[in-house]
Amino acid sequence: MARKEPAADAANPGRLKQIALTYKMTRRADKKIGLVLAAVGIVTFGVFLAIGFLIGHPIYLGILGLLLAFLASAIVFGRRAERAAFGQMEGQPGAAAAVLDNVGRGWTTTPAVAMNRNQDVVHRAVGKAGIVLVAEGNPNRVKSLLAAEKKKMNRIVADVPVHDLVVGTGEGQVDLKKLRTTMLKLPRVLTGPQVTATNDRLRALGDLMSNMPLPKGPMPKGMKLPKGGPKAR
């Protein structure tokens, strides 16, 4: 026990420093973050304290209100910090993949399942809503990438719904900040075992393509790779 205490004491300053850095980063993009957190905390505490006076238990409700005020402020801070981080990533290559990695439990993300020479890319996420293909890049060019990947998914897992989203600010596109919310709103149609089975089938296909033997030496003149062959990642 004595050995664990110094480690715990050393970890606490690290956590506090990380929170402070996150707050500073968030404040650069969200100037009102301090006022919002203070308002959430004060209002939450004030409501519970007022209820405590009304029912004759101000101390009990005051303590409860203080704890809930801290919790509410932490939740609001986390969401606004996440939104600020996504705002700073917007427009950068791979930003959608970073969002997909933070969608939540139950989702398996595979970045860059399809890409072209212009660095337009399609990412894949699998969850209880089915398969979600998320494209980022030029909206006109990613259509062909999405169509090809969606066709492949329908051929491999025909019994699983496939959704496609394009990240952007144009009409019919999903803003990067709203990507996570949009995915979580999709109807859940698969059970846990079905999600696992879908991931296994897609993983087996990926392993099969990556382990496919290729002939050594220079490619014969006029020979072309078959469609659906391994893609550069």
Automatic annotation (TrEMBL):
<feature type="transmembrane region" description="Helical">
    <location>
        <begin position="59"/>
        <end position="78"/>
    </location>
</feature>
<protein>
    <submittedName>
        <fullName>DUF4191 domain-containing protein</fullName>
    </submittedName>
</protein>
<keyword id="KW-0472">Membrane</keyword>
<keyword id="KW-1133">Transmembrane helix</keyword>
<feature type="transmembrane region" description="Helical">
    <location>
        <begin position="33"/>
        <end position="53"/>
    </location>
</feature>
<dbReference type="InterPro" id="IPR025445">
    <property type="entry name" value="DUF4191"/>
</dbReference>
<dbReference type="Pfam" id="PF13829">
    <property type="entry name" value="DUF4191"/>
</dbReference>
<keyword id="KW-0812">Transmembrane</keyword>
<feature type="region of interest" description="Disordered">
    <location>
        <begin position="210"/>
        <end position="233"/>
    </location>
</feature>
<feature type="compositionally biased region" description="Low complexity">
    <location>
        <begin position="219"/>
        <end position="233"/>
    </location>
</feature>
